[in-house]
Amino acid sequence: MKVLVLGAGQLARMMALAGAPLNLHISAYDVNTGNTVHPLTHEILGKGLASAIESADIITAEFEHIAPDVLAQCQESGKFLPGAEAILTGGDRRIEKAVLDKAGVNNAPYHVINLREDYDAAISKLGLPLILKSALDGYDGKGQWRIKSAEDLEATWYSVEAFLAGADDRQCVIAETFIPFDREVSLIGVRGANGDTAMYPLTENIHTDGILSVSIAADDNHALQQQAELMFKAIADALDYVGVLAIEFFDVDGTLMVNEIAPRVHNSGHWTQQGAWVCQFENHLRAVCGLPLGDTTRVAPTAMINMVGHVNVPQEIMSDCHLHWYDKAPRPGRKIGHINVTAASREKLAEKLTKLGQSLDSTEFPAVKEAADRLRC
Ligand code: ATP
Ligand code: MG
């Protein structure tokens, strides 16, 4: 079966690697050039969206910031899963918040801002502190403003106003109540076309400067898992979703609140490559290709450490972990690979992370020590 992935980054690459044993042939459509490329070598396989769609059996996506006309053309083909509505929802916080409300899941109170009046209304409705996020094109914490106190109000408005003036007409800003969370967790789940679902255990995520540093899959909190799974089902059903869907949550004293969703395989699910019976990439492909879903059980406590920008990775660490390089040139803030570490127990995982923390530069890998400390809590 031939699967076309919209987007030609590391997620398409890892789908190709996971799909090969199932005889699934993955090609990647580079939305920037309009070329269809091999997801590993980037060799050009074809030009133009129409011929890419024509030669695919199934179309899916590795990211959500895709132009609406490209999504519409894919939807028209009848081959696109999870489909244009789900991708548009993940790519536009305005639609996303409306879907979360419609699904009845707990999420931060918000207000949509286009004009100064909306900004003032957001402040009187939600109070301070506030976080503002661009509705479109946000990732890795980009396109965000934080308002801590009344003193920040005027300067923030000037910045938001300038941002909106320079953006296209579809752009706007969403104000959200600032949630004083204890930690951030995410759920990666998969839904088949027949409505079957399978979910991985919750992952705890540590961010540095808005970018995911470390994900830890070692928790067995049944109450939290149950809350997350109910919300997953509500959202996935509301979107009639097919494929892997990731949901980021705030854990506020044992109650989960949805932060955002990603209609695709997700960075916080990379641990499943070594830590689960069937990884998120294979499960996404199984779902969109109409194959039975795979076992999402965790095989062993696992941590995933992102390699971001220019990093030194001593070869000796390979005796304790798996390296996944994306074949990308390093640039500040760019994810170029990740490290998966598995261990027989939570304690052993903490020991391995402590050892890794001694081999890796703490400015290049800022959260490894913290991850080890969290495992010991
Ligand atoms: P991603 O890379 O996950 O796509 P993003 O840029 O889309 O990130 P968010 O996940 O919405 O943006 O926000 C980035 C981070 O900002 C969150 O991981 C969280 O730490 C913080 N944050 C977001 N919303 C809130 C909120 N309402 N209250 C407190 N902190 C928040
Ligand atoms: Mg996020």
TrEMBL record:
InterPro entries: ATP-grasp, ATP-grasp_carboxylate-amine, ATP_grasp_subdomain_1, PreATP-grasp_dom_sf, PurK, PurK_C, PurT/PurK_preATP-grasp, Rudment_hybrid_motif. Keywords: ATP-binding, Ligase, Nucleotide-binding, Purine biosynthesis, Signal. ATP binds at residues 93, 133, 138-144, 176-179, 184, 207, 259-260. GO terms for molecular function: 5-(carboxyamino)imidazole ribonucleotide synthase activity; ATP binding; metal ion binding; phosphoribosylaminoimidazole carboxylase activity. It catalyses: 5-amino-1-(5-phospho-beta-D-ribosyl)imidazole + hydrogencarbonate + ATP = 5-carboxyamino-1-(5-phospho-D-ribosyl)imidazole + ADP + phosphate + 2 H(+). Gene3D superfamilies: 3.40.50.20, ATP-grasp fold, A domain, ATP-grasp fold, B domain. GO terms for biological process: 'de novo' IMP biosynthetic process. Residues 1-18 form the signal peptide. Catalyzes the ATP-dependent conversion of 5-aminoimidazole ribonucleotide (AIR) and HCO(3)(-) to N5-carboxyaminoimidazole ribonucleotide (N5-CAIR). This is N5-carboxyaminoimidazole ribonucleotide synthase. It comes from Veronia pacifica.
